[in-house]
Amino acid sequence: MSYADEEIASQPEAWRAALRMAGTPLAGMPQRGERVAVIGCGTSLNAGVAYARLREAAGEGETDAWPASEFPADRRYDRVLAFSRTGTTTEVLLALPAGVPTTAFTAVPGTPLVSTARHTVLLDFADERSVVQTRFPTALLILLRASLGEDVSALPGLAEAAVTAPLPAGDFAQYTFLGTGWAAGLAAEAALKVREAAGAWAESYPAMEYRHGPISVADPRSLVWFLGVPPAGLVDDARRTGATVETAAVDPLVDLIRVQRLAVDLAKARGLDPDNPRNLARSIILR
Fold first, then answer.
1. DSSP character for 110?
2. Which of 149, 165, 180, 254 is the most buried (most CB within 10 A)?
């Protein structure tokens, strides 16, 4: 069993730990009405995109998510949140602005990010040995959703079911993941998991954008997976291409667990190591 297998299976307990953490006072959390930027790279950026949409939808204030390397240093924010599992990613460290309250969300204590940020929210229970991130971003989103006042108390139990739920059957040449609202960030994360772990052709789009070009690549060798409720008519459009279409009447974050499992299984079927993808490292540190 790979580390990724173990970490995927441990998500229900990691989510329970995140819920317990959300019930305690946490320094550096965004306040209602603050203009907030979230910075991150890769998986952390995808989590940031999801959180930004969730925070705005909750009426908590304007929230932007930026790749750390593209953060506009001259734009005014009341608070900057830095998402980084390892706390060592160079772009994140370089992007932290001076003179603005900053909060690090990380899994590792004593890192440069912890030393640089004004506040730290430490999810050390969600750290991982696999290069491919699974439980850190999902536990982080459970914490953040709870902090926004959302009732996510049932999700750990649903996650337990997702750890063993059936996966789409078939030998696919191309994978597309679609979501609306905050789930568009999860769709991006789903595609990233399949690319990272299995080296497969995987794409993601805000669901309604799928008709505007991307659907042209779909054929019977494609899997089209909706995270969350599909827009009206889009499932039928995807099926007309001959693609296999996957939907689930469950919270999109819960359904992401099945995508993570699919990515690991696909990697193994291709003779790849899901814990150590080609050309990747646990942290990108630029010299």
1. S
2. 254
- Strands (E) in the chain, as ranges, are 36-40, 63-67, 79-83, 102-106, 119-122, 174-179, 202-206, 222-227, 244-246
Quick one: tokens of 237? 């459009």
Amino acid at position 274, single letter? P
pLDDT tens, 17-31?
999 999 999 999 999
pLDDT tens digit sequence for 202-241: 999 999 999 999 999 999 999 999 999 999 999 999 999 9
Look at the alpha carbons of 31, 35, 40, 42 in this order and tell me if their dihedral is positive or negative: positive
> Domains along the chain?
3-147 (3.40.50.10490), 165-269 (3.40.50.10490)
What pLDDT shows up at residue 73?
Answer: 87
Number of DSSP helices (H) and strands (E) in the chain, helices first: 10, 9
